[in-house]
Amino acid sequence: MSGEISRQAFVRRALGGLAGAALLGSCRSVTPKAVSTPAPPDWNALGSQLDGQLTMPSSAGYAAAKGVFNSRFAGSTPTAIITAASVTDVQKAVAFAATNHIGISARSGGHSYIGASALDATLVIDLRRLPGGIDLDAGRNLVTVPPATDLDSVQTQLAASGRSIPSGSCPTVGVAGLTLGGGLGSDARRCGLTCDALVSASLVLPTGAVVTASANDHDDLFWALRGGGGGNFGVVTSLTFRTFPATDRDVVTMTFPMESAAAVIVSWLSWLSIADRDIWGMVNITVGDGPGRCTVILATPPGTGSSVAGEMLAAAGLSASSTRTRTLNRIDFVHYFEGGDAARVPRAFVAGSDIVGEMTSAAADSIVAAVSAWPQSAGSATAVVESLSGAVDDIDPAGSAFPWRRQAAAVQWYTEGPSDAATSWLTAAHYTLGSASVGGYINYPETGDPLARYLGPNLQRFITIRQKYDPTGLIRSGIGAA
Ligand SMILES: Cc1cc2nc3c(=O)[nH]c(=O)nc-3n(C[C@H](O)[C@H](O)[C@H](O)COP(=O)(O)OP(=O)(O)OC[C@H]3O[C@@H](n4cnc5c(N)ncnc54)[C@H](O)[C@@H]3O)c2cc1C
After folding, report:
1. Strands, E, within 16-120: which ranges?
2. HEC states along 160-192?
């Protein structure tokens, strides 16, 4: 492909020379300069230098090697895939891509909503075989992990040592992608986002240099890596997190009639935003496949679930159709939100997000109206509302690239229904929310959206840092103009 571009460039340059000669007429003779065509990428040479593996489109394993979690992107056509087995492999791959002007898709867990870890015409650097393992420094309560470690493995190993990091909900999501985009989950109100626990990250820059970004070293990069989204600046090869003690938690599940869904969202969120930060919650509204369901899930200190739920209902003036409370140890708590083995299976889905600045009644009405617009015969669709209060709010919005620390809630739209209906539903949802939405969450990105929608007021600083570390745009994120 780059050979093709070079040939076109050569032809353009040659035609330009001829046109110039014609304009000069016969006044003087012109000797055309020799123009050399860059050599095509030498894939064989690269492959022979790797500890890991090179997979080309002609290789038998190409389809499997480029496979990502969202099978809507199964037809993507990366130029090649390098399965890196060492940081040196990553450096070689980055140098090769830079020399040959091929963009890079870094691949950790492969759970990008928009298939951004196997973009067309890029060199995929797959990090799943990087060595290292999950390394807990019990003395300093730090854990260091390779980027593609799946979240469930991190949580399982940490829980065995009585520690944890702020979790997301998917067992197989890669810790790198989750962290680089923020990391929103059931620990957010007491421990913040996953990226808030990041202490340092090592990465291979487009120059091939390996650097470690932390609060004391490359602090601009460290700022940008915490919530600016994956696929920027370089390829992250390891991440170190602060851990917190793993504790039991109560989980309370309450269901409400669909008619009261908007009231539930407003009153639950206003109660939660000033509740003790040991309490976390989300509202899940699902339509299709039967009557609509509105569910509130709370996580509370062990033994307090029933009383906290009672407080919430009293404060909100609500009564639940059903309530279930159980006490879970740390790993069962993580597994509860992961959703079991079925959650590990790749599938086709359409999803996106809105950030709600203030949860007014009108904003809640619009969330319910938007999710309810899903065509009932097309399967099910869900809106998940999560609070951005508590520890998320402890960091200044300009203190890391993740900008949404003073807003009320993140809303995720998700469906595995037919693609056309799903895309129309999602577009209509944004329209229905209108000015109640101030942006989107970069870990739930949508194809074609501008980066500004995800980085809000932090966009300019992010772009300046990206320009400094990756001026040619070698590392691709699939978001915005890349
Ligand atoms: C089922 C499911 C559940 C989810 N639940 C949550 C949740 O609870 N909370 C939440 O916050 N998010 C959640 N997400 C979103 C998830 O955090 C993002 O999709 C995340 O980017 C996935 O990371 P990954 O490493 O698995 O994906 P990948 O597709 O490998 O990577 C995602 C992006 O990061 C880039 N990238 C990956 N690795 C690196 C690296 N080492 N260096 C530089 N760039 C890199 C990729 O190029 C791509 O642009 C969920 C996603 C799914 C599919």
Report:
1. 53-55, 80-83, 103-107
2. HCCEECCCCCCCCCEHHHHHHHCCCCCCHHHHC
What does residue 28 show for φ and ψ, rounded to 5 degrees? Answer: -150, 155
Greatest Cα-to-Cα distance within the chain, rounded to the nearest angstrom: 96
Ligand 1 atom, smallest distance to 443 CA: 18
Identify which of 242, 166, 230, 163 has the alpha carbon closest to the alpha carbon of residue 198. 242
Distance of alpha carbon 235 from alpha carbon 285, whole angstroms: 37
Which amino acid residue places its CA nearest to atom 7 of ligand 1? Answer: 168
- Condensed to tens digits (0 to 9), the pLDDT of residues 299-354 reads 999 999 999 999 999 998 999 999 999 999 999 999 999 988 888 999 999 999 99
* CA distance linking residue 195 with residue 402, whole number of Å: 9
Cβ neighbours for 314, distance < 8 A, ≥ 6 positions apart: none
Write down the pLDDT at residue 33.
62
d(CA 276, CA 84): 45
Which residues lie with the beta carbon below 6 Å from any ligand 1 atom? 69, 105-113, 116-117, 127, 147, 168-170, 173-174, 176-178, 180-185, 230-231, 235-236, 443, 477-478
Q: Which residues of the chain have pLDDT under 50?
A: 1-30, 482
In whole numbers, what is the pLDDT of the chain averaged over residues? 92
User: Running DSSP on this structure, what letter comes out for residue 475?
Assistant: B
Angle at CA of residue 336, ends 331 and 341, nearest 5°: 95
Atom 4 in ligand 1: residue holding the nearest Cα: 170
Q: What is the DSSP-derived secondary structure letter of residue 378?
A: G
- Cα 280 to averaged position of ligand 1 atoms, centre (Å): 22
Hey, whose CA ends up nearest to atom 28 of ligand 1?
110
Q: How far is the CA of 115 from the centre of ligand 1 (A)?
A: 10
User: Which pTM value belongs to this model?
Assistant: 0.92
Q: Which domains does the chain have, with CATH numbers?
A: 43-126 (3.30.43.10), 135-245+457-467 (3.30.465.10), 249-447 (3.40.462.20)
Q: Side-chain half-sphere of 222: how many Cα atoms within 13 Å?
A: 19
Atom number of ligand 1 nearest to Cα 178: 17
